[in-house]
């Protein structure tokens, strides 16, 4: 029943030998105009509809039968490509500060074979399995939850070690950065760089910050000024009063109109008889 | 004042600011010179906006009352026909003995129920009616279009009556037979489709004929025919209140002549009403009808009464009283023709508020009867335009007092100038369910007849002419009012519904039941003691008699020795104390009338079961009886811990320690029992506890936090470790530091504190990829503040906590768990019921607070309503209206259920952002409607079936996942459906803290399949997860690389959802937990 749509072929994913139903993976050779360092052409298989409980390990197991697998990457959808360079982000991440969450949803995967002939073989397959010796390799349910629970329990000593290790690295990094900054204070053309800290610190150019500062200045000014002292001031304040009354009147009219529209009142309808 | 002719002078500076054309136009409009007229208008509207809006609303209501010309015309011609028909009936030629009227009871059955009477003989002769005239609300044009029923009075000529007909109800008998005669003739008239008898305001002495007119109009038009004696048939002075016109002989033949002659004021007033009817109608037409606004005001006031169920029934505040009162106000110059409807209704409320008719009656003209004397005889006194008839003769004191109370509330509304208050006044249906704190219903099985004959006195029987309802009301209220003095605000008899029956049938037997609503007095209702007089005082004897064996001599600390009754021990919990009033009522009913508890359906504490500790775990100690009490122990322990935390020696001082779990505001439904322990295994500390109580720690502010989120996380971890270490060493408390929390064991409770750093939140907000995390962290910051506010609310009214508990339990048992409907939403909506619902007083019984919560859910249009919770009145009016405007203009950026509190004014309803969805909200609305109906049914039935309210139906779901019982958490909460087998399975080992397989399972299911299905579960002991497919699961689609999740190929290039495998998935994901899967076809 192999058939193709938009280059994808259907591949059954059997999780047990004794069940008729199974999920269908939709696979195709990964190709893209942009070169991706981690997804070499002709060796990468794009897999859609990977079930929630299937992850890197399980996919590797399933396709290992066809040919040796080099790597598996998961993503929420076909556009969620794995990052090109993973070296930088991993710098600080230890056991306790890993913000990566495992994808317990339907997802897609990029599976990189060692050899391109494995890929061609894979595209001809109709079925891959997730069981071995009549037993499924999936770790789900109670077993999974229990191991998850114990894994998240904190070992205080380990945590302390990790924190200390990080702080050491971080402090060194920070020192370096500061030095760098000092050097950068005036650039080659003689312009002064305004930064968050330092002698010439600037403020964030955000709307909220700016309005706050402006309000402050206005408040400071109004304290100094004498209100309603000169005739023109009195005149102006009266005028302002009229304007505010007009505005309020307009707003009230609108309110009444809206209430009318909403027909908030259905006196007799709301009562039970 | 400004010179209106002064030219426009916008300052140059401002002109510059204006850039856009449209803006310019708007501004120049605002800046143009004001004319004197406009100024006046502006100033007026500033003051009177609320009034203008109110009058606009009033106008709208009145418009909807108005009977259209088509109907008016029809009624006119139809009535002319009826008048002609009656007028053409020929008189009978001779008088007949009452027992020999052949036609009676053949075609038309006499509506009078004369079983208990021993009627003397009298003669009857039908004579052509003296006159037929319009009366009642149609006469004054105060009729409302929802229920068009016209009152017509038919006058019997003087000659129909003999000299002594005023005695022993002969007058009423004759009227009834006359009515029957009219009915029998009307049967052949072609302008009617239905003839029924009914009692006028349930008064069994006053049957009326209800004719349904033949018409092809949409609404049915009915006409009530009242028969009255012609004016002057009897001397009015015969019916003064102290005269006797009913003799004992009427009830007991053997008793003739021997009985005392007792005054029969109520009976007398019944006849007096007929005799003065014409004069009063003329008077009303003269005084009230010409003043159109007053008649409108009367209509409005009647609507207000109706919404509060005050106008119904034998002893209600009926429309006649209202019209008379309006006429009285006109006569006393309180109302006049220049007043607007708003002024009229306000004046009516105002004058009613300060009225004291029960102390000193009022009269429209100089009365023939001394008012002081009348006040001794009647509860409420208000004499009519003739000075003979007490319009309020049958009005019960309780209803009168409640009307006054409600009037003063209404007045406060009108004066508060808040436009939105209007709906509370006229538009809200105030079912008795929502007005009272306790309700009780004396069922038929109590045999009220027997009680009447045993305990009622003859004078009352004669006075009420054997009518059971007012008589028994008098018996019961006198006792209850005495027994409950001080504890209650008001005791109100609830209206009973009258019925009508075909003229060819005999009157149905009335079901003799009685219901009362009680409003508790907040200050005294929890008193455990009813203190009587000093032992040597003269009243001591009567006190003893009244309370019987309950009364005991007690010596108090101040040295007084008094008689007193003890209802509970001072150390009892609130749940028990709230029901003291119930105990007193039941005791009194039993003690005085021998009505046992099973005959009384006392609705007050039934739902308290919902938050009780399961019997298996319940300690005999009253402190451990329910979740509310258990919370207290947790809070105490938490406060101790907070003190310790603040005194720790950490680099940055711990400045605040606040709770955030529901338990800290008495809203935790699962009982928190002190049974947590710590297990140390292979360098790991494993806490074991059913519940973790969450709190937050904030440290003193410092500028030294790094500018990097990851770095802050590490520093936080270091702080947590330090705090935990210090707690271990200094305070000898078992604790563990985690990445961002500290867990501590104290007094058998497990606490978990989250460390909050403001800088982290600020940094996180700038990271778009972590929007969700920063949203959740923001909640962590605000929740403790809300917690404090809600805790304060509980301290002000301790009924809040249990009410939330009941509501949560109810939602849970409808399989709506906190994922679908966040707990905090329940808590905030309940707070809204307590703080903002101004139609009622604050509820004092959790059960009724819960019912009002349901009512809120049921009646509110969530699409157009924004819940604004202003704790401690911090918000300004402008802020509120700004929020409302934003909400209206940008509705779609708010969640379906929108709640804003004074702590998160700019957050577009953060608490309900993720849930509930529209579907769940609709479902809950429907469920609350059903529950209210169920409650109403139960309230008026013989037994209250509490279980029904907390029973989930598993019907209608697509897939059911049955769970293995041994992996389910033991719930300590009361189980409504306890079976004995389960009882033995109770696992006494405490599970690892935070490890609940069902939670894990649901989390994974929802993460993976939320697009396809909704998962329902009852977290209070549910053993099945119900799955409902979303409507889109049957969709078939073409291949789309972005939309292939969970699909399979079904041929012809089409793809469908792989439902069989997805159901299989449920089993895979829940391996070990799912016992079996049931599919509903």
UniProtKB/TrEMBL annotation, chain A:
InterPro entries per record: Nucleotide-bd_a/b_plait_sf, RBD_domain_sf, RRP7, RRP7_C
Biased segments, Basic residues type: 261-273
GO MF term list: nucleic acid binding
Domain Ribosomal RNA-processing protein 7 C-terminal stretches: 152-267
Pfam annotation, one family: RRP7
Gene Ontology terms: cellular component: CURI complex; UTP-C complex
Gene Ontology BP terms: ribosomal small subunit assembly; rRNA processing
Region ranges (Disordered): 253-273
Domain of life (superkingdom): Eukaryota
Protein family (similarity comment): Belongs to the RRP7 family.
Protein known as: Ribosomal RNA-processing protein 7 like A
From TrEMBL, chain B:
Coiled-coil ranges from the UniProt annotation: 32-59
Biased composition (Basic and acidic residues): 1-11
Source superkingdom: Eukaryota
Single GO cellular component term: CURI complex
Keywords tagged on the record: Chromosome, Coiled coil, Nucleus, RNA-binding
Principal localisation: nucleus
Subcellular location: Chromosome; Nucleus, Nucleolus
Sequence ranges assigned to domain Nrap protein in this UniProt record: 150-288, 295-428, 433-593, 620-771, 798-950, 955-1077
Pfam families according to UniProt: Nrap, Nrap_D2, Nrap_D3, Nrap_D4, Nrap_D5, Nrap_D6
Stored InterPro entries: NOL6/Upt22, Nrap_D1, Nrap_D2, Nrap_D3, Nrap_D4, Nrap_D5, Nrap_D6
Residue ranges of the region described as Disordered: 1-31
Transmembrane segments: none
An example molecular function term from Gene Ontology annotations: RNA binding
Entry's Gene Ontology BP terms: rRNA processing; tRNA export from nucleus
Assigned protein family: Belongs to the NRAP family.
PANTHER family in UniProt: NUCLEOLAR PROTEIN 6 (PTHR17972:SF0), NUCLEOLAR RNA-ASSOCIATED PROTEIN (PTHR17972)
Protein's job: Part of the small subunit (SSU) processome, first precursor of the small eukaryotic ribosomal subunit. During the assembly of the SSU processome in the nucleolus, many ribosome biogenesis factors, an RNA chaperone and ribosomal proteins associate with the nascent pre-rRNA and work in concert to generate RNA folding, modifications, rearrangements and cleavage as well as targeted degradation of pre-ribosomal RNA by the RNA exosome.
Quaternary structure note: Part of the small subunit (SSU) processome, composed of more than 70 proteins and the RNA chaperone small nucleolar RNA (snoRNA) U3.
Protein name: Nucleolar protein 6
Organism for this UniProt entry: Pseudolycoriella hygida
């Amino acid at each position: 029943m192999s058939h193709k749509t938009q280059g994808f072929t259907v591949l059954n994913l059997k999780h047990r030998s004794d069940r008729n139903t199974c999920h269908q993976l939709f696979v195709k050779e990964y190709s893209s105009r942009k070169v991706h360092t981690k997804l070499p052409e002709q060796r990468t298989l794009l897999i859609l509809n990977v079930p929630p409980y299937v992850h890197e390990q399980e996919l590797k197991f399933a396709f290992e039968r066809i040919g040796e697998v080099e790597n598996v990457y998961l993503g929420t959808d076909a556009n969620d490509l794995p990052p090109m360079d993973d070296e930088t982000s991993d710098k600080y991440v230890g056991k306790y500060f890993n913000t990566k969450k495992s994808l317990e949803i339907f997802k897609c995967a990029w599976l990189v074979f060692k050899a391109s002939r494995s890929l061609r073989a894979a595209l001809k397959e109709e079925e891959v399995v997730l069981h071995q010796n009549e037993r499924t390799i999936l770790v789900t349910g109670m077993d999974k939850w229990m191991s998850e629970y114990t894994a998240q329990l904190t070992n205080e000593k380990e945590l302390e070690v990790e924190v200390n290790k990080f702080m050491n690295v971080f402090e060194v990094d920070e020192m370096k950065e500061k030095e760098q900054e000092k050097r950068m204070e005036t650039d080659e053309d003689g312009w002064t760089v305004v930064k968050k800290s330092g002698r010439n610190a600037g403020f964030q150019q955000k709307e909220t910050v700016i309005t706050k500062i402006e309000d402050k200045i206005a408040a400071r000014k109004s304290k100094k000024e004498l209100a309603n002292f000169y005739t023109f001031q009195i005149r102006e304040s009266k005028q302002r009063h009229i304007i505010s009354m007009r505005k309020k009147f307009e707003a009230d009219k609108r309110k009444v109109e809206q209430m009318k529209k909403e027909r908030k009142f259905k006196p007799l309808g709301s009562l039970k008889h | 004042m400004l010179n209106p002719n002064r030219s426009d002078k916008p300052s140059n500076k401002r002109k510059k600011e204006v850039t856009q054309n449209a803006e310019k136009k708007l501004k120049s409009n605002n800046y143009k010179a004001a004319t004197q007229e406009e100024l006046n208008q502006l100033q007026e509207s500033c003051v009177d906006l609320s009034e203008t809006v109110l009058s606009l609303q009033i106008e709208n209501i009145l418009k909807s009352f108005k009977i259209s010309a088509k109907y008016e015309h029809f009624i006119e011609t139809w009535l002319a026909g009826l008048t002609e028909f009656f007028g053409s009936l020929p008189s009978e030629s001779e008088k007949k003995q009452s027992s020999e009227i052949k036609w009676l009871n053949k075609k038309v059955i006499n509506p009078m129920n004369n079983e208990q009477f021993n009627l003397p003989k009298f003669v009857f002769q039908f004579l052509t009616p003296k006159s037929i005239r319009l009366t009642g609300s149609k006469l004054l044009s105060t009729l409302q279009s929802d229920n068009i029923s016209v009152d017509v009075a038919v006058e019997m000529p003087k000659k129909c009556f003999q000299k002594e007909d005023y005695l022993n109800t002969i007058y009423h008998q004759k009227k009834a037979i006359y009515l029957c005669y009219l009915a029998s003739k009307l049967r052949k008239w072609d302008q009617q489709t239905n003839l029924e008898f009914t009692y006028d305001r349930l008064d069994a002495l006053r049957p009326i004929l209800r004719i349904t007119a033949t018409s092809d109009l949409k609404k049915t038009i009915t006409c009530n025919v009242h028969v009255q004696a012609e004016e002057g048939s009897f001397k009015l002075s015969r019916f003064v209140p102290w005269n006797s016109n009913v003799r004992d002989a009427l009830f007991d033949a053997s008793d003739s002549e021997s009985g005392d002659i007792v005054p029969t004021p109520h009976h007398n007033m019944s006849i007096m009403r007929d005799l003065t009817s014409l004069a009063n109608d003329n008077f009303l037409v003269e005084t009230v009808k010409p003043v159109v606004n007053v008649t409108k005001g009367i209509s409005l006031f009647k609507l207000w009464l109706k919404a509060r169920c005050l106008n119904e029934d034998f002893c209600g505040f009926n429309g006649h009283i209202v019209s008379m009162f309006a006429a009285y106000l006109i006569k006393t110059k309180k109302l006049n023709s220049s007043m607007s409807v708003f002024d009229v209704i306000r004046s009516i409320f105002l004058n009613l508020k300060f009225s004291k008719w029960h102390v000193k009656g009022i009269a429209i003209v100089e009365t023939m009867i001394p008012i002081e004397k009348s006040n001794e005889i009647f509860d409420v006194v208000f004499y009519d335009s003739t000075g003979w008839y007490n319009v309020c003769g049958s009005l019960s004191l309780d209803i009168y007092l409640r009307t006054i109370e409600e009037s003063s509330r209404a007045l406060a509304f009108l004066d508060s100038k808040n436009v939105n208050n209007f709906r509370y006044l006229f538009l809200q249906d105030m079912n008795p369910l929502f007005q009272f704190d306790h309700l009780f219903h004396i069922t038929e099985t109590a045999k009220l007849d027997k009680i009447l004959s045993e305990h009622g006195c003859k004078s009352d029987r004669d006075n009420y002419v054997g009518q059971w309802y007012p008589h028994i009301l008098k018996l019961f209220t006198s006792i209850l009012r005495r027994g409950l003095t001080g504890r209650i605000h008001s005791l109100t008899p609830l209206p009973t519904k009258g019925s009508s029956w075909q003229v060819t049938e005999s009157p149905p037997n009335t079901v003799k039941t009685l219901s009362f609503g009680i409003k508790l007095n907040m200050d005294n209702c929890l008193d455990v003691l009813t203190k009587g007089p000093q032992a040597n005082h003269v009243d001591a004897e009567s006190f003893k008699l009244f309370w019987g064996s309950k009364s005991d001599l007690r010596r108090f600390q101040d040295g007084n020795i008094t008689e007193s009754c003890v209802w509970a021990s001072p150390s009892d919990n609130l749940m028990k104390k709230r029901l003291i009033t119930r105990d007193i009522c039941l005791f009194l009913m039993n003690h005085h009338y021998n009505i046992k508890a099973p005959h009384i359906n006392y609705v007050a504490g039934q739902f308290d079961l919902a938050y009780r500790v399961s019997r298996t775990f319940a300690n005999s100690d009253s402190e451990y009886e329910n979740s509310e009490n258990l919370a207290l122990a947790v809070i105490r322990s938490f406060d101790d811990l907070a003190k310790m935390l603040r005194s720790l020696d950490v680099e940055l001082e711990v400045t605040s320690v606040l709770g955030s779990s529901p338990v800290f505001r008495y809203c935790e439904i699962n009982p928190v029992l002190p049974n947590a322990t710590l297990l140390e295994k292979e360098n790991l500390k494993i806490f074991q506890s059913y519940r973790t109580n969450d709190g937050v720690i904030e440290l003193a502010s410092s500028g030294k936090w790094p500018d990097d989120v990851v770095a802050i996380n590490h520093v936080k971890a270091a702080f947590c470790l330090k705090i935990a270490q210090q707690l271990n060493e200094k305070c000898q408390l078992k604790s563990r530091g985690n990445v961002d929390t500290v867990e501590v064991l104290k007094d058998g409770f497990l606490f978990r504190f989250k460390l909050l750093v403001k800088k982290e939140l600020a940094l996180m907000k700038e990271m778009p990829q972590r929007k969700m995390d920063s949203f959740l962290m923001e909640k962590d910051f605000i929740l403790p503040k809300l917690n404090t506010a809600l805790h304060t609310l509980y301290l002000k009214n301790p009924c809040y906590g249990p009410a939330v508990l009941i509501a949560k339990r109810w939602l849970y048992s409808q399989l709506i768990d906190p994922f679908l409907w966040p707990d905090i939403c329940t808590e905030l909506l309940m707070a809204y019921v307590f703080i903002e619902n101004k139609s009622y007083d604050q509820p004092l019984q959790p059960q009724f607070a819960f019912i009002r919560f349901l009512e809120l859910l049921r009646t509110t249009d969530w699409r157009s309503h924004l819940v604004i919770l202003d704790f401690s009145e911090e918000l300004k009016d402008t802020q509120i209206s700004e929020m409302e405007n934003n909400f209206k203009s940008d509705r779609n950026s708010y969640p379906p259920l929108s709640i804003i509190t004074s702590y998160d004014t700019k957050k577009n309803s953060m608490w309900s952002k993720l849930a509930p969805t529209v579907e769940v909200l609709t479902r809950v609305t429907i469920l609350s409607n059903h529950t209210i109906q169920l409650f109403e049914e139960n309230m008026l039935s013989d037994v209250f079936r509490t279980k029904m309210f907390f029973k989930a139906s598993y019907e209608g779901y697509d897939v059911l996942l049955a769970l293995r019982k041994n992996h389910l958490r033991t719930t300590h909460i009361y189980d409504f459906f306890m079976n004995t087998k389960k009882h033995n399975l109770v696992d006494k080992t405490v599970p690892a803290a935070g490890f609940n397989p069902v939670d894990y399972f649901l989390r994974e299911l929802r993460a993976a399949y939320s697009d396809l299905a909704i998962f329902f579960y009852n977290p209070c002991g549910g053993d099945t997860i119900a799955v409902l497919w979303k409507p889109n699961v049957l969709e078939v689609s073409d291949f789309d690389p972005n939309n292939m999740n969970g699909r399979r190929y079904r041929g012809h290039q089409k793809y469908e959802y792989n439902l069989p495998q997805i159901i299989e998935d449920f089993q895979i994901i829940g391996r070990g937990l799912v016992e079996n899967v049931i599919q509903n076809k």
